## 1
Amino acid sequence: MHRNALSLVLVLLFCFWTSEVAAQFRTADALTPTGSTEMPLTIDNDRIAVWSGGALVFVQDRYSAAPIFRILDRNGTQVSDFRFSIPGAALINIYDNSVARGSDGALAIVGTAYSDDSRGGMFVAWVSPDGQQQTIIRTSPFLPHAVTLASDGTIWVAGQEGRDTTRPLIRRYDKTGKLLGSFIPWSRLGTDPHTLPFVLSVLLPLQDGVLWYAPRAHTYFEFSSDGSVIERFKSAPHPEHDLTFVAVCGDGGVFASTRITSEGHHQTNWGIFTLDRQRREWSLIPRNERWGRLLGCDGTGLATTTDHKTISWLEPAGR
């Protein structure tokens, strides 16, 4: 088949897929706008933001020797800031889904630290609410990707140690760096060993436990505070290879959004999936904007952005 003809077929197939998904999962429920908050900084490749622990955590210079963490309230007012550094590190890389704030204001951070001679090592960090105390946990060869702080203050990390599928993918630490437990070996997921299920995954706190959303494994787990699995659902039917943003609200509502791209990586639209726990099914709430993503949830209100600089607050129907 001619290359141009093949490209046209792929585009048509993609458009058919997106329309079929939208039709199959379209729901009568809606997301009602309830206001907006202007952010003092714009999200870009060097800056990330997440709504976590009742505040917006904005990370600036996330690929530098000392990334800046700014904590903003719901009005967009900065309430605190600090520079994060590690002794002996000339470069620190902070990735997506690798920053979380606890209900007490403490922060958990995962990333990579490099010395002057370019030797790198993975770490998990706990930072006190005032930014004055920190614990650095060296995790290599374990490669952490996602992190959250549970309601009891423990640090949960999703990652992988080598290619051994018998190794657990989830770790739990206390704020002193003590390893409290490891859970869910790769082999339990029933996925291809080359899937790397921890990549693009998300960890979020529940009222009495933690949620691990792993789109590349087509699943997510809900753990009790001691690490026992209490529930398992399929992930939302979005492209598994795409970067996914997930939010869990105070009433247990779970939402997931993802970019939908076409041939040539041109943005087409976006939507927010919501989970019906009783039916164990996802419903898609289409959005009119050409692009958007979830930042998190505050109470039952979803924090979203469609322009990288404004938080648009959405309230799910019936909540």
## 2
Amino acid sequence: MIVLGDNGVNYYGPTKDRRLKKKLEEMPITFFMIKGNHDQRPSRKLYHVTSNNPHPLLEGTCLAEDDYPSILFSAMYGGYQFLRPSGIWQRAFVLGGAYSVDKWYRLDMQAAGYKQYRWFSDEQMTNWEMKEAESMLKDFEPDIILSHTCPRLYIPTDMFLRGLDQNTVDQTMETWMGHLEYTIPYDTWYCGHWHTDRKIDKVRFLFNDIIELE
């Protein structure tokens, strides 16, 4: 199962997240986690780099914990391959992270002592990471894109939070993804983040829906 970010297993830290990780590990399934804006980046102190073939249906380097080998974390960005039921390998490129529109609210709540509201300063891809990902994509030729947020053109404006000044929202990643979407060939772009289920052109938003890769 591919989870398109905000997966909840890298939120509080290794101790508090353990209960959820244990429940997921008990399921007869392997999870491939993409980083959302509400996920911490996996720490190399806690996670180890897997082999290039961490699962029979997956090719690509992931991060995992010894206690929870069925929960695989993708790199912040990079290429992977998934084996389809037809026996054909599908090339996927991952783009993790996004901007938290409720950043300042979360910081205010933290300051007031509400520890459940967390904000991570490295939630987005850096400029260097975006340039590196763009360079990698020139040679990778993906069939699908797996990301947390979406290209700017496809932002579902009807999902904006009421009362929030959109001029305060950083859309750097969405703007950059818009450039990628225009310049690279792909079949389907899958994303989460926006709390909606819909398809616009070749971009598929997933929130409640669980679908088989097309």
